[in-house]
TrEMBL record:
Stated family: Belongs to the ATP-dependent DNA ligase family.
Designated name of the protein: DNA ligase (ATP)
PANTHER family associated with the record: DNA LIGASE 1 (PTHR45674:SF4), DNA LIGASE 1/3 FAMILY MEMBER (PTHR45674)
Species, as recorded: Rhizobium bangladeshense
E.C. number(s) listed in UniProt: 6.5.1.1
Recorded superkingdom: Bacteria
Gene3D superfamilies listed in its UniProt record: 3.30.1490.70, DNA ligase/mRNA capping enzyme, Nucleic acid-binding proteins
SUPFAM superfamilies, per database record: DNA ligase/mRNA capping enzyme, catalytic domain, Nucleic acid-binding proteins
Broad enzyme group: ligase
Catalytic activity field: ATP + (deoxyribonucleotide)n-3'-hydroxyl + 5'-phospho-(deoxyribonucleotide)m = (deoxyribonucleotide)n+m + AMP + diphosphate
Taxonomy of the source species: Bacteria, Pseudomonadati, Pseudomonadota, Alphaproteobacteria, Hyphomicrobiales
Amino acid sequence: MTRLRRPSAPLLRDSNASIQSRPVRRRDADQPSLPFDAMPSRVEPCLALLKQTVPHGPDWLYEVKWDGYRLAIHIEPKSIRILTRGGHDWTHRFPTIGAGARELGVSTCILDGEAIVLNEEGRSDFGALQRSLGGRGGKRVSTESIFCAFDLLYLDGHDLTRTELSVRRHLLEDLIPETDDAAIRFSQELDLGSEELLEHACQLGLEGIIAKRRDSPYRSGRLGDWQKIKCVQSASFMIVGYEESVSTRGGLGSLLLAGRKGHDWIYVGSVGTGFNRTEAEYLRKTLNSLQTKKPVVPLKGKRLVFSQPTLIAEIEFRGWTHEGSLRHPSYKGLREIQDNAAVFDMNRCD
């Protein structure tokens, strides 16, 4: 029976393009259970290259840019593994997603996607995801998170990384349930032309969009097959200290931020919005434990407290000033250092 494609959300559209791929080898009738390709223990993720404009043309498909943690789910007959972008096993941190993976009814596969927590408006909220995990270094498990699957790298003995994206997504869609409350959900294509897509996505309060080449294989690294276009810029910066305050939340007025340039730290300004009193108290206590008398950036001030470069913050901002500082920055949460969070490279500003 032909499977009908699921209905699209307002921003999503159906694709009537024919699907073509390389021929699949036949199984050996004498060895029906023998897999063709060994299942890899880990696949280095394909990363999106930041661009300022949306690429046009029928060769591209577009998805929502989810604001969460990149994960890979490895499903085998007797086990489920959930790996972070850096390769750490976080299966125990996402029990709801793990349970959803077991219900897919597939023998072996590797799903690529993003763990997110949705806010009341139905948008992914990185801060809410962080809180569900107990903050940076927290020990909580996240029962609120769901997994948006956008790629399929391995399925029942077949390595799909050399197959074009359109085919991988077609196979992926067949695996994902069509209910709105499932823990594993399919990341659908956006339902507008590229010319008006970004503006509409930004009006809806989304972080941005991801553009992907339909015929591209899955290539690890940041090679341009995938591109991200953001409504508001967001990047990771090192916290190198804070400014004390006697009148604001938890005695913390603002965080001092730095980007990396080679082996040096470059000051990019401070951020004083985006955190509540509880978060401010935690940040101040942690930064005090990392306090140093020798700042890693050339700053002076009576109310400045400097810390060792250890905490990495995700910051939303509107651009750069002529002096090299962030415009209208806002704190979103802390990144996990052990998960290889990439601190902003200042060479990108040159």
